[in-house]
Amino acid sequence: MERIRELVKRKDVDYIEIRSEEGVKTDIVIRGKTVETVKQGRFIGGNVRVLVGGVWGFVYFTNLDNLGEKVNETIEQAETLKGLVKEKSGLGFSPSLGKFIKADIKNDPYDVPLSEKVKLFNHYSDVALSLGRNIVSTVVSYSDTKKKVYFANSEGTYIEKELLDIGGYIVPVASNGKTLQRTIMPFGSSSDYSVTGNLDEKIKERAELAEKLLTAEKMMGGEYPVIVDPHLGGVFIHEAFGHLSEADFIYEDERMRSIMKIGNKIGSDILNVFDTGDIPGLRGALRYDDEGVEAKKVYLIKEGILSGHLHSRETAYKMKEEPTGNGRAINYKFPPIPRMRTTCIEKGTDKFENFVKDIKKGVYAKGSFGGQTNGELFTFVSEEAYLIENGKITKLLKDVSLSGNVFETLKNIVGVGEDFEIRDTGGGCGKNGQFPLPVSHGAPHIYIKKAIIGGK
Amino acid sequence: MRDKFIKLVKARDAYGELFLIKNKHFSVNFENNKFKSVEEGETEGFAVRVKEGGKVGFSYAEKNGGIEEVVKSALDTARFGEVVDFNFAKNNALPNVKCFDEKIVNESRDDAIHTGEELVDFIRSLKNGIKAGFSINRNVIHQEVITTEGFNNNFDKTVKVISAGGFYAEEGNFLEVYASQSRSLNDTFDLETLREKIKTDILASDRTANISSGKYPLIFTPFSVNSLLTPLMSALNGKNVLRGYSLLKGKLSQEIFSPNLTIVDNPLLSGGAYSEPFDDEGMPTHRKELIAKGVLSNFLSDLYTSSKLKIASGNASRGISSPPIPSSSNIIIKPGEVAVKNMLNTERGILVESLMGVSMGNVMGGEVSGNIELGFLVEKGKIVGRVKNAMISLNVFDALKDIALSKENVWVDKYISPYFYIPNISVSAK
Q: What is the pLDDT of residue B430?
């Protein structure tokens, strides 16, 4: 794809970039005893994005034969829009560079025969099914994608990067005929197929829990103190604050700019939050984003004070801040927008036991089926939860979902644990139709003074 | 490519199905009160299913060409598949469905921008400081299915989606309102309803109403019915029935819900965004009553689940990169007899416009648990104000036993639905 370097040498535009990709993907889905899907596929595609007189043009395609024509088409599109756009766009500074980035692959799933993968996941389904009469089925999902992305822009940057993404989960499903319960054992990596190995014991644990949930009680709904484990803490910070920090939510809205101003007191003093691309092996690992910007570590909150935003080059330009390497696109069909990479609450100094001791009546919530936010309100569903009564963890609870107001909850964090864990999941992040983008998140145990629990 | 496909598969003494899609996409986008961008795209791809020795294999390519490689790859995966006893589609008679509109194909960019400007101005006029957004997405789709059993057909379809909304940020009080319509025929759009919904939501949100935890009657508007019915649609999916994830398994012909509830899947609906003459396996589409006066009468099904469950197929849906699964098309819920006005005339209830987080909950178990993203407290027919920081929690298999439905209905994207009134639901508030 060296030819794209030539095609972006244009003097008649402010900026032009071409991004193309090609790759292969394998998926396996097993439900109970049935291998439902084993599939292999390949994809190829590209896009041209131009800035002419402060106006963007964007065209994407699967046919890469006539790239020169596509370049002209995109420029023409932007030219005819000039009179219609009231405010000119621009790009934050990014040094030009030439990079060839090989994926840092420890164990390549493409070295493993498909038959072996199918055998392994069949085995995992059996492990769960063999556990008890109430395990009625499973959902086992495995997916890997290996792709090469080529990027060239008119500022002289050329990047070829190889990317690997592995993700999946094993869900045991329990039922007693009247109700259904499920748990989840997720895995993921950007470098190592061996994350899929040695899961038997963990799957057994999850299946046993799914059975126990059938007879667990539902919490009485209301506001309670909550302890969340590192996994759920990671989902929480991703949903509750990560999305809010994405600058396309902020940059053109004066009210949002004032609410999300750097220096604002946003959380309790013990809270530190960062987003980074530089933890290798994680699904959220990224050296350069889809605009060719280095994926730096950004502190979003330092000691409770808002200290950074997540930028694409366009939002950085408009907010007069530095691009952060968060301009990401899920594939060639989309232009890059600000997205998270690996988002974490930094570890603190508190002990988990002390959180429990402090609570008269509350909830300890672990693991997650995912979360959602609209900027201000967030909600997530825990996988496993326990009632805390008078400083002791007592009963298992079922169907626990937590919700709250982001700004209040960040200030209500009264304890940050001394432990810390990042656990990759098999899903991904969704925004503006771009789903599932590989991201990671992590946290220590977090003690929240109050959150709303939905219940009976 | 089509002939080559048949040849390649027959040479192996196998059966095969080729699914091809071409899509021309065009969108106009407004963000933060401003016209922002136009995006255009042209994509194509194809998928192959083969059946060799009774086992099914699958492969795909999101690109043009390379049929040999894809057929080979599909045959490779067939050895892992289970032995199935269905055949790919034969040359069946197809219904006549209106789902292609030249007006949508030919709509000019400037017309689309003009519609955007009008809607954005309208939304801005409703509240000082609100940021309006708008988009038109237009897809012109060409779909083909070819099988070794003799099906060889195609159709063109247009799908246009109009979305509009507003966002207002205030410390401790964000407001997001949103509405969209998707259709395959241009004349079936009803922008007045879309405007009215946005206006009502914005104006009603001016005041906040505090509530405490407790039981309330809930009124789901046609815009939130999608969330309410998420677990039900999952349980009506033949695939979930077959795999043991559906609590409706084994309950065909039983009265499971209120006799007020009748739900029909209708892929023949003129102008429906989910309308088409044949499904994604080449089977003729048809109207299917799923719930008839509270009685479970059918499941959504594709060829595979039909062969197992002994029910009619015609509900197969897929993208290029996935094998077909049963999926709903346009869902039509029969209206009831209560005027919305009377429904709201409750002592103290909550009108739910949008819920957040339902799809992550225990959907298989029937749980609808979510934060009221946008909802209002109503007292004796009057909207008191916006309800915030509250979660509802109900089980759809219990809740739908006792409901009332409104006379009025609204065509949102997938659903044409009345308002649902459900008494006595648990709401947790701070």
A: 83
Q: Decide if B161 contacts B176 (C-beta within 8 A).
A: no
Nearest to A325 by CA among A102, A157, A103: A157
pLDDT along chain B (430 residues), means of 10: 95 97 96 92 96 95 92 94 94 96 95 96 96 97 98 98 96 91 97 97 95 96 96 97 93 97 98 98 98 98 97 96 96 98 96 92 91 96 94 95 98 96 94
Nearest alpha-carbon partner for A297 in A273, A317, A265, A316 = A273
CB A178 within 8 A of CB A72: no
Residues of B in contact with A179 (CB under 8 A): 247, 365
Which residues of A fall within a CB distance of 8 Å from B82? 34-36
Task: Work out the average pLDDT over A87-104.
Answer: 86
Provide the sign of the torsion angle of the four alpha carbons A228, A230, A236, A242, taken in this order.
Answer: positive
Contact residues on chain A for B243, CB-CB shorter than 8 A: 31-32, 34, 137
Mean pLDDT of chain A: 94
d(CA A363, CA A395): 10
- Of all residues in chain A, the one with the smallest CA distance to B70 is A41
Q: Is the pLDDT of residue A87 over 90?
A: no
Q: How many CB atoms lie within 10 A of CB A414?
A: 16
Distance CA B238, CA B250 (A): 11
Q: Considering only alpha carbons, which residue of chain B is nearest residue A400?
A: B361
> Which residue among B31, B43, B173 sits closest to A45, beta carbon to beta carbon?
B43
What's the full length of chain B, in residues? 430
Cα B339 from Cα B219, distance rounded (Å)? 12
- pLDDT attached to residue B129: 93
Give me the pLDDT at residue B172, please: 78
Residue of chain A whose Cα is closest to the Cα of B429: A222
Contact B393 A77 (CB under 8 A): no
Distance CA A441, CA A236 (A): 9
All residues at 6 or more sequence positions from A58 whose CB lies less than 8 Å from its CB, including other chains: A47, A48, A49, A74, A77, A335, B37, B38, B39, B40
Q: What is the ipTM of this complex?
A: 0.91
Min Cα–Cα distance to chain B from A100, Å: 25
- Residues in chain B with CB shorter than 8 Å from the CB of A371 are 357, 360
Residues of B in contact with A456 (CB under 8 A): 393, 426
Question: Does the CB of A342 have a partner CB in chain B at under 8 Å?
Answer: no
Sequence-separated contacts (24+) of B233-237 with Cβ below 8 Å: B233/B328, B233/B331, B234/B363, B234/B364, B235/B364, B235/B366, B235/B397, B236/B290, B236/B291, B236/B299, B236/B300, B236/B328, B237/B299, B237/B300, B237/B325, B237/B326, B237/B327
| Nearest chain A CA: its distance from B191 CA (Å) | 22
Q: Is A376 on the interface with B (CB under 8 A)?
A: yes
Considering only CB atoms, which chain A residues are within 8 Å of B75?
none
From chain A, the residues in CB contact with B80 under 8 A are 35, 38, 114-115, 118
User: Coil, strand or helix: which one is B171?
Assistant: coil
Asked whether residue A455 carries a pLDDT value surpassing 80, the answer given is no
Check if A81 contacts B (Cβ < 8 Å): yes
- Please tell me which of the candidates B170, B364, B371 has its beta carbon nearest to residue A255: B170
Q: Is there a contact between B60 and A39 if contact means CB atoms under 8 Å apart? A: yes
Residue A422 to residues A216, A443, A445, Cα–Cα distance (Å): 28, 7, 12
Model pLDDT, residue A344: 98
d(CA A369, CA A28): 20
Prediction pTM value: 0.94
How large is the average pLDDT for residues A338-367? 97
Please report, for residues A234, A369, A446, B45, the alpha-carbon distance to residue A366 in angstroms, rounded to integers and kept in the order given.
11, 10, 11, 41
Q: 3-class SS at B347?
A: coil
| First-to-last C-alpha distance (Å) of chain A | 59
Distance CA A92, CA A317 (A): 4
